[in-house]
Specification:
The complex is a heterodimer of chains A (212) and B (371). Chain A has 8 helices and 11 strands. With 212 residues, chain A is α/β, with parallel strands linked by helices. Classes of the chains: A alpha/beta (212), B alpha+beta (371).
């Protein structure tokens, strides 16, 4: 039986930072630090295999057991609601899920609010909790231009520094939820690879506490 | 008639063996229609794992549904008197949208229900049958057990509003301690109880590891004793290695109570067995008695089976105008030897075979092997 611990890391800067945390926790894999375009890396001796995945796909790899552990943004977890364990807030990749609109935006409650977003589920749940009737316009990118072109009244999107909003003459109207990277674990893997997973969780948890 | 079991797929063998297992302990088969009145599900929508139900209008104008669940139908039709216990098993398909997926799936289930004056014997019998079912499917299996009363008892003592309680249940099901602590802090919940809840989530492992911790936390003695008794019986019958206690198993408390459990198989990424006591559902349906049961999700089991290397042993090529009588005889001769044969005029695409044979002038000659 294969006992490799499969770890899905989000491609990009966040993933590289997270790998360093895994390395410090005792799960190093030198080949991942070499400059190449490979996507899968193994350290057979330590029994760990890393792979780079598109950040929004990490939760799918973990939920479906292709990865035992992964690191995903809370935005993705709220949007797709995968059936996984969310065992640690890594306190990295911090930003906010916000409602933003034009500076002169006025919420006319007599009208259905048009909301452009990549996060239809999060937006739907948020406005549902307020009892507000909305029309969700699902977009895949450049959300900020939707209110400018009058495609929507507001947008629901991730805001890190707010610079993009400012440059497009938009502002945050409401913060829905703070976002950060989370360590997620497949529920079945937790049963069968508990000791290894526990070691990762404890190793990363120590670093998170130290950086607090 | 002799029955050749070698033709059965892995999950088909499992179905027959699980049926035989449940039958052995006096469970009788409960056969039901594929349809049920929609009203039954509309009234108990939260009990179902997904809101999506396939509905249609019957010829008499009634709105019907393709069964998304079996338990509700069995409970509705159960007639229990006195100290009687109804023990039934089923082997049915249900129609659901699984997880966050899109589109309906037909999901085959085998399961059992034990309804009536259930006692500790009944509860542990169902747990034993769940453990045996899992062990039958794979040696590499785990049965994870929780007592929902312990979890909900602690949560209720936090005195939080309904939406916060539901958020906390969600956090527990995800072992999400950081958010649970944040909610409790924000709502001003008792710090001592919050700390207890955090410890409870951390308790996960064998009965020997977990039970002392539960006692230390001062959890409801009756519920802890129930958990202890169940795990002791499972240990007695040789299942100690596969049984763990884990409080992240959360089922809707409006329906479930007491013992709840989940079964996992190594190599299958989600739970294969889901079950528990559902006395709150019984109450909702106006039946004041005990109930416990579980379902085995068979749709996932095909992942355990290795694909066979070929579709047929031999492809027998015959020419146009070959004598059908002689061809039949040649085919029968081969099948009598236990070889599977497909007679064709040419080698078909995408069929995997071991040997190629030629039928000519009433004779069979083997002409080659598949590359």
């Amino acid at each position: 039986m294969e006992r490799m611990l499969n770890v899905a890391l989000p491609k990009g800067r966040l993933g590289e930072k997270v790998y360093k945390m895994f390395k410090e926790a005792g799960f190093e894999c030198p080949s991942i630090e070499e400059e190449n375009r490979k996507l899968i890396f193994e350290n057979e001796k330590l029994g760990v295999r890393y792979f780079w995945a598109k950040p929004s796909d990490v939760a799918i790899y973990v939920e479906r057991g292709a990865a035992d552990i992964g690191v995903a943004g809370k935005d993705i977890l709220l949007e797709y609601e995968p059936d996984i364990y969310e065992m640690l807030d890594l306190n990295m990749g911090k930003c906010r899920m916000c409602v933003a609109g034009k500076k002169d935006f006025y919420d006319d409650r007599n009208k259905t609010l048009r909301v452009a977003t990549k996060f239809s589920n999060i937006a739907g749940n948020y406005y549902n909790s307020l009892g507000r009737d909305i029309d969700i316009i699902h977009l895949n990118g450049s959300i900020e231009i939707a209110p400018i072109l009058d495609l929507s009244d507001v947008i629901v999107d991730l805001v890190e520094t707010g610079t993009t909003l400012k440059e497009n003459n938009l502002e945050v109207i409401e913060t829905i939820v703070p976002i950060s990277a989370r360590l997620i674990v497949n529920k079945v893997s937790y049963e069968f690879k508990k000791a290894e997973i526990q070691k990762v969780v404890e190793g990363l948890s120590r670093q998170v506490k130290r950086n607090d | 008639m002799t029955f050749n079991t070698s033709i059965l797929k892995n999950e088909e063998k499992i179905i027959y063996n699980l049926r035989a297992l449940y039958h052995k302990y006096g469970y009788t088969q409960y056969k039901m229609s594929k349809f049920e009145e929609y009203d039954l599900y509309a009234k108990n929508k939260d009990y179902l794992s997904s809101d999506n139900i396939i509905t249609f209008t019957d010829t008499n104008g009634k709105l019907m549904a393709l069964k998304p669940d079996v338990t509700l139908s069995i409970v509705r039709n159960s007639r229990i008197q006195g100290c009687e216990v109804q023990k039934v098993y089923y082997n049915e398909n249900v129609y659901r949208v699984p997880g966050a997926g899109k589109g309906f799936r037909e999901i085959p289930q085998v399961g059992l229900e034990c309804i009536g004056a259930t006692d500790m014997f009944c509860i542990s019998e169902v747990l034993l049958l769940a453990a045996k079912s899992l062990k039958y499917i794979s040696e590499e299996s785990r049965l994870s057990i929780s007592n929902l009363d312990i979890v909900s008892g602690l949560i209720n003592s936090l005195n939080l509003d309904k939406s916060a309680v539901s958020d906390i249940f969600k956090c527990i099901s995800q072992k999400n301690i950081h958010e649970l602590e944040a909610i409790c802090r924000e709502k001003g919940a008792c710090e001592e109880t919050t700390a207890k809840l955090v410890k409870l989530i951390g308790l996960s492992g064998s009965a020997e590891e977990v039970i002392p911790g539960l006692k230390e936390l001062g959890c409801c003695e009756e519920s802890v004793a129930q958990l202890e008794a169940c795990t002791a019986i499972l240990r007695e019958y040789g299942f100690a290695d596969m049984v763990t206690i884990d409080f992240s198993i959360i089922s809707d408390v409006n329906y479930y109570n007491g013992i709840v459990f989940t079964g996992y198989i190594s190599g299958i990424p989600s739970a294969v067995v889901i079950g528990g006591q559902y006395e709150n559902l019984m109450k909702k349906m106006g039946k004041h008695c005990g109930a416990i049961g579980f379902a085995v999700y068979l749709d996932l089991l095909e992942r355990l089976e290795e694909s066979s290397a070929c579709d047929v042993d031999t492809i027998l090529i015959y020419e146009e105008g070959a004598d059908p009588m002689q061809l039949h005889k040649a085919v029968e001769d081969l099948t009598d030897l236990g070889i599977t044969v497909m007679a064709q005029k040419c080698v078909p695409d995408k069929i995997r075979y071991k040997r190629l044979a030629k039928f000519s002038d009433g004779e069979v000659s083997f002409v080659g092997k598949n590359a």
